[in-house]
Amino acid sequence: MVSYLGPPIFAAFVWWFSTGAVLLLVGSVGRSELLRAVCAGGMLTIALCGLSVTAHDTSVGAAYMAFSCIIFLWGAQEIAFLSGWLTGPRAEPCPPDAKGFARFSYALQAIIYHEICLLACGAIVVWVTLGAENEVGRWTYLALWVLRQSAKINLFLGVPVTNDELMPDAVQFLKTYFARKPVSVFFPISVTAATAVLVVMIQRIVEVADTPSEVVGLTLVSTLFALGVVEHWFMLLPLPAITLWSWGIRPAFSPESNIMEQNPSTIAAASVHAAPTQASEAPQAAAEARSAVGPQLVVLPTARKDEAPKVRSSCARQRLEDQFRQTFLEQHPRSGLAPARVGIAAEPVATINGRTS
What is the C-alpha end-to-end distance of the chain, expressed in Å? Predict the structure, then answer.
């Protein structure tokens, strides 16, 4: 029972986690190209070494390891592709008026380097596992390559749902080569053919596989193939595919957009607290005037709606306005903004006039 239930769970988890990890590394955490290069190089080295070690091993553990090595190898290529290092000589959007063969030519130029890399890595996998008894790695890579080519062709010809939200910034131009429209004739043909292959693999698991290693290997490859067919249906049905990897997709932080969404009074208060130390070194008279006026006269001008866009656009300008108010209070004590000081100064004058008249 473990031979039949363990591989599907393992393959589904590896498919889900590896996709999200690559998106996270390329999109948000992996801002450093050096970090991504080290990860891709390490994954490539581990994959090739693991394949060579398990090529002649027919144990159940070797089947799992060969499958995982191919996932590492594929992930290294995805990192290079989604980072924009390995796309094609034409890293530009598709011209709006391009149609037919011209559009196909532009699309091929945009990804030709990646396609050559996929074929080269496939040749290396075949060479490493040539004549070996453990064929899990070879069949896994072939399944990934066939499903990827089918998905690319369908996206190019047209599907209702492209799921282009998964594309990182470095390869955003590739979205212009996708066609968001009803499916073409190729979609039912590709899905039907993939489903037929999946049925054949399941049949071999039940009727042909004898050893636990064969059962595990075929189950891993067939599960991965089934997940690829499900990904094809994501292009047709409005399924929440992006929610599967929402933890690996984080929008870039934009300080300006974050400021625009905040409350104007909150921004003003934050800018007052973040003002330079010169504000704390103002004269004692200005401090007394501000304390006498109370918090209303300080907060309300900064929270006015007509000044809110100015506050949002520049916090530095808000600090200058605060300093201007302090200077104004010092130079115009009778302007009405400091009633406490005006009252104190006016009372002695009235008393003296009363005594002299």
Answer: 113
Residue 283 has pLDDT above 60, yes or no: no
- Residues 342/333, Cβ–Cβ less than 8 Å: yes
The model's confidence at residue 352, banded by pLDDT at 50, 70 and 90, is: very low
Band of residue 326 on the pLDDT scale cut at 50, 70, 90: confident
Three-state DSSP at 211 gives coil
Burial class of 293 by CB neighbour count within 10 A (0 to 12, 13 to 18, 19+): middle
Token code pair at residue 169: 């910034």
Place of tokens 């059962």: 215
Distance CA 153, CA 221 (A): 22
State both tokens at 286. 């200005």
Averaging pLDDT over each range in 192-201, 227-236, 257-266, which range is the top one? 192-201
The DSSP code sequence of 317-329 is: HHHHHHHHHHHHH
DSSP string for residues in 328-357 = HHHH-TTSSS-HHHHHHHHHHHHHHHHHH-
For 180, phi and psi rounded to 5 degrees? -95, 95
Taking residue 325's Cβ as centre, other Cβ atoms within 10 Å add up to 19
- Mind listing the pLDDT tens digit for each residue in 139-177? 999 999 999 999 999 999 999 988 887 888 889 999 999
Q: What residues are paired with 180 via a beta bridge? A: 159
Of 284, 257, 268, the closest CA to residue 321 belongs to: 268
Mean pLDDT of 10-34: 83
Would you state the structure tokens that stand for residue 223, as one six-digit string? 């599960």
CB atoms within 10 A of CB 322: 17
The mean pLDDT value of the chain amounts to: 77
Distance CA 8, CA 70 (A): 16
Check whether 102 has a pLDDT greater than 80: yes
For 188, phi then psi, to 5°, come to -65, -30
CA 346 to chain centroid, in Å, comes to 66
Structural domain boundaries of the chain? 2-252, 257-356
